[in-house]
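Why should sequence recovery work at all? Because a backbone constrains its sequence more than one might expect. Tight turns favour small or flexible residues, buried strands favour hydrophobic ones, and helices have their own preferences. The token representation captures these environments compactly. In the example below, the structure is given first.
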């Protein structure tokens, strides 16, 4: 029978509450003081702005914890299936609170931020994290998935630049766009061979058999669903980056040509 520790429940509830406060109160308050452009946005854009601000904050927090665990948590790194999940549980509890909070916001503000792919993404992640939090299984792999969060701030910043009216060919937009593409590829695509090699190496082991069918299927299915979506997003991001680079190239060629004409 599944059981959640009081600490895990407390952290998830605190996380949910904090992210709700960030969305409804702090994001707008801070944004109006950082950029005057926020006040000129439509209500729909403000909702998405606040949602992405919360998303960025969550990504920075759990991404930092994730990297620390991968580098220094010897117990989890020594046993990928059954390693001591204590620290990982804290990180995933924070993410669980965020995912539930974001799902609630998506439902409540569907016309502004509704996206079926995000709903699928969140539900798949929550289903997999259930086994980490309730049974202490697969802590290494659950934490590994959070590496993907390092790309989130760049994706959100691209949107912020867009709604604030920054030209696609602006230096800030170009730098962020390239970083977004590179970081997204590194933390979501390039790590796939490493991730799945460790998944496959566990097949048939005694530890894998102890997981049981429910945990095994949740782990594999959620991983595949999330990575199919990552590949789809990677294609979309790459196409966008290529278009911007081509646009800048044409503008530079045009400027060079006009300079010669002068």
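From this structural description, the recovered sequence reads:
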């Amino acid at each position: 029978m599944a059981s959640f520790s009081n600490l895990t429940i407390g952290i998830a509830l605190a996380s949910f509450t904090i992210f709700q406060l960030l969305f409804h109160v702090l994001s707008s308050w801070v944004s109006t003081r950082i950029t005057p452009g926020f006040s000129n946005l439509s209500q729909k854009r403000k909702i998405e702005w606040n949602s992405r601000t919360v998303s960025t904050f969550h990504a920075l927090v759990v991404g930092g914890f994730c990297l620390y665990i991968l580098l220094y948590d010897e117990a989890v790194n020594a046993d990928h299936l059954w390693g001591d999940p204590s620290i990982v549980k804290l990180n995933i509890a924070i993410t669980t609170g965020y995912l539930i909070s974001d799902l609630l916001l998506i439902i409540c503000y569907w016309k502004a931020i509704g996206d079926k792919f995000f709903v699928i993404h969140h539900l798949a992640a929550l289903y997999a994290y259930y086994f980490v939090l309730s049974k202490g299984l697969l802590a290494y792999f659950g934490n590994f998935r959070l590496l993907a969060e390092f790309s989130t701030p760049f994706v959100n910043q691209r949107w912020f630049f867009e709604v604030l009216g920054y030209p696609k060919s602006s230096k800030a937009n170009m730098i962020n766009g390239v970083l977004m593409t590179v970081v997204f590829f590194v933390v979501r695509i390039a790590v796939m061979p490493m991730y799945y090699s460790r998944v496959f190496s566990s097949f048939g082991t005694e530890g894998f058999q102890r997981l049981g069918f429910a945990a095994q299927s949740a782990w594999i299915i959620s991983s595949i669903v999330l990575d199919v979506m990552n590949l789809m997003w990677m294609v979309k991001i790459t196409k966008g980056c290529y278009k911007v680079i081509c646009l800048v190239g044409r503008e530079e060629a045009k400027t060079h040509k006009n300079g010669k004409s002068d």
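A few observations help interpret the result. The chain has a mean pLDDT of 91.
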